[in-house]
């Protein structure tokens, strides 16, 4: 019997008809060596059937309490049927990249059946006309897996582990994870009496734990609070300007993506010597926003602020116990108003370092810790109040998440995965989420938005490429100058 953690439950309580809490992965595979005899749907179905034991996500569903009296439970689905979760799909002619993006967005935008395990996989056959300039290395006969999982069950890090457990490390079918020693997790349905007892116990215990957490945090947050109270320097405060991304979001989401060599991204760190790879990601996103908004004559004079999720797991945490969400966050000033790309990059690097060390990181971690001790009914009510208050627009303009992945090729039934992309939930007043996934020497930049927020998503994707190329050109110039000076 496993009860949901408060952070997982937030993705239930904050879900609306317009903004679902779905997380979607788009994996593109080149055809296997035996492509002529390859029955794509049946082969993938057999493979997934053989890996159902690698994660409880596959076969357990939610048990919710009336009026959200307490957090829900995971229970085994006694009537689990894999055919209810696998779907055969194909693109209409000509079967190109834009159509694949539209299909992924359509799947992402549909609600899940909350009476079943919260996942589904769409197997998209015969990708025969993918333009090399839009998505490289997709030969005719390739296929895609569009996997949708409710965010209540998974975050970025656990999602990568989930997909790795489904994958092989060679065309011969050698599992990427040790699937033979995985112990199955069974969640029996709790009795009504047990759920009521736990609800009463949690409501009594939660206020005490809440106060204990707050008391432990005072020494770390007090200096920052005092400084902010006495400071008159407005430049130290991240004031969120209203932008076109802070509007109501349409229920039908949109998706696009592009990819860059990971080695090139790492080389860009030479432009800001103290930068991390995450700073490079933010710099490219900021550059894209600068170019996009400038082209639309809509660039604010003050910078946009990004909400940046951070993996909160211990480095050596047991992967068998880390499904669900373990994240904190920080806010990041993107300095989108700065025209010079290097100055913008250096400003982002300095700001993120301070955020991690000081008040932004501490306050985000504190809110995460405190939310762990809210009773279920309180969390449900608080989530609704947050949605009604439009607080998202007061905290950030958009979100940017960088999720590291495996740097070796992964396979499924002999077919090599050549691209990985992701879509994530949006919220009203936060209509843009940029997700980067690193895999096998590349990093993809995935865009989740809606047409009323970004009506020209292809142009925004071009702006990402433009931002990358201008930093790459400056890096090459810096390297050439260094060579001449030797």
Automatic annotation (TrEMBL):
Annotated InterPro entries: Acyl_transf_WS/DGAT, O-acyltransferase_WSD1-like, O-acyltransferase_WSD1_C, O-acyltransferase_WSD1_N
Domain of life: Bacteria
Record keywords, A-Z: Acyltransferase, Glycerol metabolism, Lipid biosynthesis, Lipid metabolism, Transferase
Enzyme Commission identifier(s): 2.3.1.20
Domain O-acyltransferase WSD1-like N-terminal: 4-281
Reaction catalysed by this enzyme: an acyl-CoA + a 1,2-diacyl-sn-glycerol = a triacyl-sn-glycerol + CoA
Domain O-acyltransferase WSD1 C-terminal per the UniProt entry, residue ranges: 324-472
Annotated metabolic or biological route of this protein: Glycerolipid metabolism; triacylglycerol biosynthesis; Lipid metabolism
Family, per entry: Belongs to the long-chain O-acyltransferase family.
Name of the protein described by the UniProt record: diacylglycerol O-acyltransferase
UniProt lineage: Bacteria, Pseudomonadati, Pseudomonadota, Gammaproteobacteria, Cellvibrionales
């Amino acid at each position: 019997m496993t009860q949901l953690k408060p952070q997982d439950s937030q993705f239930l309580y904050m879900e609306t008809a317009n903004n679902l809490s779905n997380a979607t992965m788009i994996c593109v595979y080149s055809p296997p060596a035996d492509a002529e005899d390859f029955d794509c749907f049946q082969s993938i179905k057999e493979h997934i059937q053989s890996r159902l034991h690698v994660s409880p996500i596959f076969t357990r569903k939610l048990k919710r309490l009336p009026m959200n009296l307490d957090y829900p439970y995971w229970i085994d689905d006694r009537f689990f049927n894999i055919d209810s979760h696998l779907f055969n799909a194909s693109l209409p002619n000509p079967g190109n990249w834009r159509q694949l993006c539209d299909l992924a967005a359509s799947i992402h935008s549909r609600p899940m059946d909350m009476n079943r395990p919260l996942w589904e996989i769409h197997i998209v056959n015969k990708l025969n006309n993918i333009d090399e300039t839009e998505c490289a290395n997709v030969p005719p006969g390739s296929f895609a897996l569009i996997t949708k999982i409710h965010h209540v069950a998974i975050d970025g890090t656990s999602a990568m582990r989930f997909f790795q457990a489904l994958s092989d490390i060679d065309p011969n079918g050698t599992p990427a994870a040790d699937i033979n020693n995985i112990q199955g997790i069974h969640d029996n349905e709790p009795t009504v009496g047990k759920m009521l007892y736990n609800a009463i116990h949690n409501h009594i215990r939660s206020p005490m734990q809440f106060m204990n957490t707050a008391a432990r945090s005072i020494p770390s947050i007090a200096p920052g609070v005092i400084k902010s109270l006495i400071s008159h320097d407005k430049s130290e405060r991240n004031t969120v300007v209203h932008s076109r991304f802070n509007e109501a979001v349409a229920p039908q989401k949109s998706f696009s993506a592009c990819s860059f060599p990971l080695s090139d991204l790492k080389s860009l760190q030479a432009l800001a010597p103290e930068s991390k790879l995450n700073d490079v990601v933010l710099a490219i996103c900021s550059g894209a926003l600068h170019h996009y908004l400038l082209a639309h004559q809509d660039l604010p004079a003050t910078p946009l602020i990004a909400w940046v999720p951070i993996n909160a797991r211990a480095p050596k945490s047991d992967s068998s116990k880390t499904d669900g969400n373990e994240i904190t966050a920080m806010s990041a000033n993107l300095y989108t108003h700065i025209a010079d790309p290097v100055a913008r990059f250096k400003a982002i690097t300095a700001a993120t370092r301070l955020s991690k060390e000081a008040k932004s990181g501490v306050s985000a971690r504190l809110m995460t810790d405190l939310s762990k001790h809210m009773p279920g009914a309180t969390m449900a009510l608080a989530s609704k109040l947050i949605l009604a208050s439009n607080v998202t627009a007061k905290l950030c303009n958009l979100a940017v998440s960088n999720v590291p992945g495996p740097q070796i090729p992964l396979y499924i039934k002999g077919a090599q995965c050549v691209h990985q992309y992701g879509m994530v939930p949006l919220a009203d007043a936060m209509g843009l989420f940029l997700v980067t996934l690193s895999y096998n020497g590349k990093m993809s930049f995935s865009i989740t938005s809606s047409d009323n927020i970004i009506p020209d998503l292809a142009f925004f994707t071009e702006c990402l490429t433009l931002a990358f190329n201008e930093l790459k050109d400056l890096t090459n110039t810096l390297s050439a100058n260094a060579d001449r000076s030797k």
